[in-house]
Amino acid sequence: MKNWLKNLLFVLFSFIFLGFGMLVAEIFIREKGNPLKDPNFLAQTPSDTVTITNITTLDSTQGWINDTIDLSEPAPQNTENKQVITKSSEQKDYLVITGMYGQKANANREVKKLKDFGYSEAHSFRKSSMDAVSAGYFGKEEAENIASELKNKGFQAIVKHQ
What we know:
The protein is of the alpha+beta class and about 160 residues long. The protein has three helices and six strands, in the order αβββαββαβ. One of its GO terms (molecular function) is peptidoglycan binding.
C-alpha cells in the first residue's frame, strides 16, 4: 500500500476513535452529571453503605474473622498537628557537578578520580544525552567550599540546587 494511503487511513481511524470517545463522554455527562464540576459526584452512589470484608486466619485453632466497615457514618477527622518541615542549610540539596561527558567511560574515569580524592559519594547520572559527574549532595555552604576545593585540585566544578 502506498505511504500516503497509510497516513490517510491512520488519520481517519484517529478521528473516528476520538469522535467515539467524545460521544461516550457526552452521554456519560448527560446521564450521570459532570464529575469534574460536582464535588459530591462520588457520594451519589446507589447505596450509602459499602461492606468491605477482610477474611484472615489467626491460627489453625480459630475460625475465620470477618471485619465489616460501615461507610454510612463519616470517618473521624484526624486532629493531630502536622509538623511543617522548612528548608535549612543542613539539607543536602545542592549538587557539585564536575563535568558532562558524551561517553560513559569518561564519566566513570572522572568518578574514580573523585573517589580517589576522598569524595565517596561521587557518582554519574544521565542528563539528556550526556553523563553528568557529581561529587555528591551537600548543604549550600559545604557545596560551595567543596567546589572551591575541587577547582584548586584542577577540576571544573559548579554548584547546582536540586
